[in-house]
Amino acid sequence: MNAAGSSHGAGGLASLDDVLNQITSSSNPGSLHNYLRSFAPREVRDTILASTLSSGQDPLAVLDPQRNTLGFLYILSAKLHSASVQTPPLHVIEAFCSQFDPEQARLAPERVTLLAKGIVRASESSNNAKYALAPLYSLLTRYAPHLSYLTTLHAIFLRTCVATGHFTFALPILSVPITSVDTSISDLHYNDNLIYHYSGGVALGALKRWREAEEFLEICVSAPAQVPAAIQLEAYKKLALVQLIQYGETNPPPKYAHPALSRLFKNSPYGFFVKTYPAQTSTLRSFATKEQETFTQDRNMGLINQAIDRAPVWLIKKLTATYLTLGLGDIGKEVGIESEEEVRAIILSMIDAGEINASISADNTVTFGDVVPKFSKEDLDRVVVQAQEHNRVLQEVERAINASKEYLTKAMKHKDDGGWGLEEDMFPPSMGGGTPWAED
Known about the structure:
Blueprint (H helix, E strand, L loop, with lengths): L15 H10 L3 H8 L5 H8 L19 H12 L9 H10 L2 H4 L3 H17 L7 H11 L5 E2 L1 H13 L6 H4 L5 E2 L8 H17 L3 H13 L7 H18 L11 H8 L2 H8 L4 H10 L1 H6 L3 H20 L4 E3 H8 L4 H13 L4 E4 L4 E5 L7 H26 L2 H12 L24
Parallel strand pairs: 1-2
Antiparallel strand pairs: 3-5, 4-5
Helix pairs in contact: 4-7, 5-8, 7-9, 8-9, 9-11, 11-12, 11-13, 12-13, 13-14, 13-18, 16-18, 19-20
């Protein structure tokens, strides 16, 4: 049936019965999508969609999640945001998220985002936020052509994982690098990228996967902006603490990070902490106590404490660059630990972890040597597999660029001009260039 052939209810507005008739009789998803987003004025459209049929029946009980994906999506998302109707049962939400037709759903990316936000809203209002995780995971993993496509669902899912403390649940998503952006399948905003990578960094940090946490937080910090976002400064703080735990010092921020972030960071308590680190634990704890309100408010007290606990390790590593032998008591004085047994335990732990090459004699003398890197066959195999995967991803990106009409046109133009080279505006929109993401 053609969308224009709809009957209308009182006042000239389509009733939900009319809408349901269009959903079940339409054979053209594109036309149906145009109808669903225009059958009534915007201010009353979702009210109609969230209502019941004239018979009192719930339209979701009539529709099939896979065959009627678009209609189901519009009605379900409307119901989840309505304060005047009962929240749909969890099994209905889960059934849709595990059965919907992705191609149909991609016609209405803004409704998919609305659905995801509605699932979180419903779970929070029921004081059981973790129940949103399973349907959000299904929605995210099935919606995009591949998990390497950044979508609004990434940010919503990761933020929910962090809020509920279910960090391991996010690992299958975090393990897939983001290589593609396509605003035609997801109504992305600049903050979606920041929230996803910031939340990913928090989750990975909570799991003590420091290298991966560093990578995610650095992506958030270095995202280009005329004015840095508040979340980027928060990511900068966590990034610095993660680096202290992992390396004993911070690395310079990427050159393309906004310079204002470094200035703000250096003038904060975190800047002083980094400048002082590593130091004796008593010095660091005294400062942490003084600035406890700030660190607690930023939810960084856990990272601060872990950095302080690691400080003796980095002080001992510094000693290995100066001394060949040193007594346990002398080491204890340098790092601020009175107990020789505690110093012994730290050194033995460092030896076991491969952080230093040392031996302790019967008279409590520590002899330091150069660290000899050790690699197991499993380590080498893992590196080879990662390199092969990175090579595959790069080849896919290169093929996508070479197949872009916009790229080829600009490349030939630059070649004719004698300026052959890859410029930022030569990348196709699907690769993140050309057309910027939507701004809030």
